[in-house]
Amino acid sequence: MKKLLSIALLSTLTFGQEFYSMINPIKTFSVKAAVSGEVVFVNKSLEKNYVSNKSIVKLDDSLDLVNLEQTKIKLANQEQTLKIESDILESYEKVSSKTKIDKDGQKMKILSISSSIADMKMQIANLQNNIKKKNISASDIYISSVEVEVGDYVNAGGLLYKGYDLSRGKLEIFLPINEIDSFKNKTIYLDGKRSGLKINKISKVADEKNISSYKAEIIVKNPKSFSKLVKVEFK
User: Fold this and answer.
1) Same-domain pairing of 51 and 148
2) To 5 degrees, how large is the angle CA 77–CA 80–CA 86?
3) Which of 19, 45, 108, 140 could lock 232 by a disulfide, CB 3.0 to 4.6 Å apart?
4) CA–CA distances in Å: residue 63 to residues 59, 91, 134
5) Chain segment 201-220, per-residue pLDDT in tens
6) Number of domains making up the chain
7) Same structural domain, 47 and 20
C-alpha cells in the first residue's frame, strides 16, 4: 500500500526498462498584468472550465477612455487648423506683397501643428493599447484559478490567472545516458498498449536531479485525462 502511495505522489518513476510518468498539459500559463490598475471585473465562474474568447479580468480604464475621447477631439481640431494654415500659406505664395519672412513664419506654424498632430496620434495609439491591456480575455485554454478579486489593485507584473493548454499532453521520463541511442527507434507502449508515439525531444544535458539521465519528452495528442500515472515501455 505504501509503495502504491509513493508512486502516486511522484510524477516520474523508473523501474528497469519501465518508466512511470504523469500526463501533464503541454503548456502552463501564468498570466500577469501588463499595466497597473484597479480590478473592476472578475469572471470567477470560468474557474475550472475550458474557455474560448471570454473576458476574465478587467482593470479600470475609465480615465483612459476619457483621455482617448478628448485627444481624438483635439486631433480633429488640429487637423482642421492645419488645413486652414496650409490654405493661408498657399495664398501667401500667390501674392507678391508677402515677404519671405511672412512665408517662413507661416511654414513654421504649419510644422508646429504637424508635430502636434503626430504627438496626438501617438497618444491615441498608446491609450488604445493601454485600454486593450486592461481588458484581459482568454481563448482556448483551461482556467485553473483566477488570482484577483474586484477592488484589488494590481501592479504591472501582478498575477491575474493561471491556466493550461489541454490540446495536447506530455510525458516526461528520464533515460539513462549510456543507453540513450537504444530508445530512439523503439516502439512506445503506454500501459501495455502500442501507442504509435515517438520521443519528441531529448535533453542534451544531464538532469540536475537525475544526474545519470537525460530528460525525454513524449507528446500525447488529445489525451482523455491528465494527471494520470502511465507506464511507459520501449520495445
Assistant:
1) yes
2) 140
3) 19
4) 11, 42, 12
5) 998 888 777 778 899 999 99
6) 2
7) yes
